[in-house]
From TrEMBL:
Family the UniProt entry places it in: Belongs to the glycosyl hydrolase 18 family.
Lineage, highest ranks first: Eukaryota, Fungi, Dikarya, Basidiomycota, Agaricomycotina
Protein name in UniProt: chitinase
Listed SUPFAM superfamilies: (Trans)glycosidases
CDD domains in UniProt: GH18_hevamine_XipI_class_III (cd02877)
Length: 369
């Protein structure tokens, strides 16, 4: 009976693979990356607990999402010299245990979710920074030591203080929105050095604002190679809504940067968008408009890699906005995405990031947008 079960398991695995569960392919132009971790919907709809952020594996049940940056590692050097993570109602150092002598949350229960997503062909990366994260590196030596720490705690290294246990993440994402570029090139190079000797592929991505060059990441993007760049086309004058009104995709000038300045000429550029009107202070557009912009942009620029959305909780509450844009990218058609939340976004003074009242369980204090 045991042999029969093993045989049937092998057949099932083969069928799953043959039916399209494939490893993430960064060379494609129809990928969808969706941030997870900040319970953005919960921050803007505190009484609608049914639609609060779900477990990580919930967002890996179909083929809509290809890459998930888990947000955020918001403190680089905390108590005991170790970093800190805050993933709102899922993992934080207020509601979860911390490793002794540190402020680093012990969320090893996430290991199975991470592996489930990876088995489904997704990549799960760790996003560093956020709107108010303590994300500053003051020297190349410090940056290299910090990269060693990240490698040991979250990637292919080893440590007694691994927040996600023995699960190995697929890379890092830089969402640096303050503090300057510092020595981040040295950090990236060190991560690349570690990855070069590993038997697994690791990805390095960044999430700059759409004004070019980005004030915090512009020089970093020019100094070292990234696999993908998730450009935030919202909360700025160059947001998607403005581009749509002008009937133009000219602000996707990073295609020229990718081909002429990026150390990695094969870098993929993602069109970053809010997944709902309550995801950002400005920049949300309905799914038909986003689909038109994305497919038109893709037809004009071969550096186009796909669409990035903020965030998973908002996308699911907004009639699966993530699935709708994936359908548009893979079939050229958009699925309707009507929702009571698809309204004109409220005005935020200065068009800057929305700031929420601090709450560890509802939404992280480091809610980005």
């Amino acid at each position: 009976m045991a042999l029969l079960k093993n045989y049937l398991g092998l057949i099932a695995s083969s069928l799953i693979f043959s039916c399209g569960v494939l490893a993430f392919d960064n060379s494609r132009n129809d990928n969808v990356a969706v941030y997870w971790g900040q319970n953005s919907y919960g921050a803007t709809h505190p009484s609608d607990t049914a639609n609060f952020q779900k477990t990580l594996s919930t967002y890996c049940q179909d083929d809509s999402i290809d890459a998930i940056p888990a947000a955020f590692l918001n403190v680089f050097f905390g108590t005991g010299g170790l970093p800190e993570i805050n993933m709102a109602n899922t993992c934080n150092n207020v509601d979860n245990d911390v490793f002794p002598g540190t402020g680093l949350a012990n969320c090893q229960f996430l290991a199975d979710d991470i592996r489930t997503c990876q088995a489904a062909g997704k990549i799960i990366t760790l996003s560093l920074g956020g709107a108010t994260g303590s994300a500053t590196l003051t020297s190349d030596a410090q940056a290299e030591a910090f990269a060693d720490t990240i490698w040991d705690l979250f990637l292919g290294g080893s440590s007694d203080t691994r927040p996600f246990g023995d699960a190995i993440l697929d890379g890092v994402d830089l969402d640096i929105e303050g503090g300057g570029s510092g020595s981040f090139p040295a950090f990236v190079r060190r991560i690349r050095d570690h990855a070069a000797g590993a038997g697994k592929q690791y990805f390095v991505t960044a999430a700059p604002q759409c004004p070019f060059p980005d004030a915090n990441l512009g020089s970093v993007l020019n100094a070292v190679g990234f696999d993908a760049v998730y450009v935030q086309f919202y909360n700025n004058f160059c947001g998607i809504a403005t581009e749509q009104n002008q009937k133009s995709t000219d602000s996707f000038h990073r295609d020229n940067w990718a081909k002429t300045q990026s150390p990695n000429p094969d870098v993929k550029i993602y069109l970053g968008a809010p997944a709902s009107s309550t995801s950002a202070g400005s920049g949300f557009v309905d799914i038909d408009t986003l689909s038109d912009i994305a497919t038109t942009t893709r037809s004009q620029f071969d550096s186009f890699g796909g669409v990035m959305l903020w965030d998973a909780s908002q996308a699911f509450a907004n009639n699966r906005y993530d699935r709708a844009i994936k359908n548009a990218l893979t079939s050229g058609r958009a699925s309707p995405a009507s929702s009571p939340h698809s309204q004109k976004p409220e005005s935020i003074k200065g068009g800057k990031s929305r700031k929420e009242k601090p709450s560890a369980r509802v939404s992280s204090r480091f809610f980005r947008f």
